[in-house]
Structure prediction request, 322 residues.
Amino acid sequence: MERKINPSQQQVTKPILSLVNLTKRYGNRVAVNNISLNVFPGQIMGFLGANGAGKSTTIKMLTGLAHITSGNAFICGYSVKTAFEKAIKNVGAMIETPVFYPYLSGYNNLKFFAKLSGNVSNKRIEEVATLVGLGNRIKDKVGKYSLGMKQRLGVAQALLNHPKLLILDEPTNGLDANGIREFRMMLKQLAYKEGISILISSHILSEMENLCDIVAIIDKGKIIQVKTMEEIKHSCLQAGSQFIKCNAPNFAGKLIMQFFKAKVKIQGNKVYINAKNRNSLPQMIVMLTQKKVLVYAAGDVDYSLEDVFLNIINQSHNTAIS
Ligand SMILES: Nc1ncnc2c1ncn2[C@@H]1O[C@H](COP(=O)(O)OP(=O)(O)OP(=O)(O)O)[C@@H](O)[C@H]1O
Ligand SMILES: [Mg+2]
Prediction:
């Protein structure tokens, strides 16, 4: 898919969304703690964090649903604090599950919202229905829609006013694997074809795979890492140890420790190896074969994206304690 805007060339452009020391306190509890973050034109930013991390609170501050305690946010350069109407004009948002009239068709629901916001043509309503892939079901009653179709209609509603930034709070909650994949494809098309920037929150890293260009990880109200999806996938490999499956794992483990100065752990018939040099694995296999060990399989341990996400969060907790 060709992209209208290439997010890797963003450094020279101005951000569409800029959070500057954004903070929200509820009484003594700091829900969002001094967050700074930029989203550039055409970029899909994943906003990732466990339950209670502060994702919805951040999004609510951006969309005027929660008061900003301190710091600020700028949308297309407009201050959310002092020029909210100008700022919010550029935003389409879907926060949690959107609510529609079930006895009206998708089209008439959109028409209702179009009237509320004024200045939206019938042509635009049809356009957004097609953009979200609801073209042939848009005249059906919403009461007959699946959850995935309702989420799509929510995005269609958010798109009515030609926003430059789409903000979606956990839009894939409740969708099955297929629904998530289709939803992801639709968002990519939007970002790629229309050049819209997207801020999408989730608590599942793997849902962000093959969608986001960049992921900001939030934990206990703080951004603890901002990484490209490529960097995260790379750290999956780095975090991983290697394994050798063989007929004499204890013996093999001792040999590997002795000759390669590597740390090992034995589990069943597998030796897990943490070597300084990951390229030593073939030499280890040769050595073991020479020592009459039968090697059945060897390779990198597959760490899932979720493992990496949890690792990043755990590391940040350990750093906070020490
Ligand atoms: N209206 C409120 N009053 C008091 N505390 C609140 C309020 N809204 C949120 N919080 C607190 O702020 C923190 C962040 O909540 P938030 O809803 O932003 O998390 P989240 O990342 O969206 O989590 P989830 O994945 O469960 O949706 C939590 O500790 C929550 O209890
Ligand atoms: Mg939330």
Remarks:
- Residues 177-194 form the longest helix (18 residues).
